[in-house]
Design a protein that fits this description.
182 residues; alpha/beta; single chain
Length: 182
C-alpha cells in the first residue's frame, strides 16, 4: 500500500511538517509512506497549462492508494499553498484524479482549537463534486498548542494523547484504504 502524506503549508518551519514526518516514520511498517511538500508547486491558474512540477504532482497523487493531509490553520482556513495544490487536482486536471481516492486529514496549530476550522474547510473541498474524494469520516486529530506537543529541535511528537489519537486514526485509515480497493 502506497500512501502520501502532504505537508499542507509552504512555511519553512511547520509543526505540520513534523506531524507528516511522524506519520511516515511511525507507520512505515504498515505501508509505504512518502512525505510530499506543496511549497515547490506552481500556484494554480485555471488559464495556464500544468508545468512539469504539476504533472509530477498529479501523477504522484494518482499512483497513491491513499492521501494523508497535515494542515495548519491560518485565519480559520487552510493555507493558500495547500488550496492551490488541491486546485490542480480538480476535474480540469483530468478525470478521476481524486474521485473516490481515500483521504485522511489531521493537523497541528498554535491555537487551542487545533485545526478544527481548517479541517472542516478541507473536507468540504475534498467532498466537492470537482474532487469527490473518499474522506475518512470522524477520526479528527486536532493538535492544539502544537509548540508544547513537539520537540522543536528533533521534531518528535511528545504528547502521548496525540500519539494515541494518531494511532487510532492510522489504524482506521489503513483499513479504510484496504476496503476501497477490495
Amino acid at each position: 500500500m502506497k500512501l502520501l502524506v502532504i505537508v499542507g503549508t509552504n512555511a519553512s518551519f511547520s509543526y505540520n511538517r513534523f506531524l507528516a514526518q511522524f506519520v511516515a516514520k511511525h507507520y512505515g511498517d504498515k505501508a509505504d509512506i512518502e512525505v510530499k511538500e506543496v511549497d515547490g508547486l506552481t500556484p494554480f491558474c485555471r488559464t495556464q497549462m500544468a508545468d512539469d512540477s504539476i504533472k509530477a504532482w498529479i501523477e504522484d497523487i494518482k499512483s497513491a492508494d491513499g492521501i494523508i493531509i497535515t494542515t495548519p490553520e491560518y485565519n480559520h482556513t487552510i493555507p493558500a499553498a495547500l488550496k492551490s495544490s488541491l486546485e490542480w487536482l480538480g476535474s480540469h486536471a483530468g478525470p478521476n484524479v481524486m474521485k473516490m481516492k481515500p483521504v485522511a486529514v489531521l493537523g497541528a496549530s498554535y491555537g487551542v482549537q487545533g485545526t478544527s476550522r481548517a479541517q472542516e474547510d478541507i473536507r468540504e473541498i475534498l467532498l466537492s463534486p470537482d474532487m469527490s474524494a473518499n474522506v475518512l469520516p470522524g477520526n479528527e486529530v486536532l493538535i492544539g498548542n502544537a509548540a508544547s506537543k513537539f520537540d522543536k529541535d528533533s521534531g518528535e511528537l511528545t504528547d502521548e494523547t496525540a500519539v494515541g489519537q494518531i494511532d487510532g486514526m492510522m489504524n482506521n485509515f489503513i483499513k479504510f484504504v484496504e476496503q476501497a480497493y477490495k
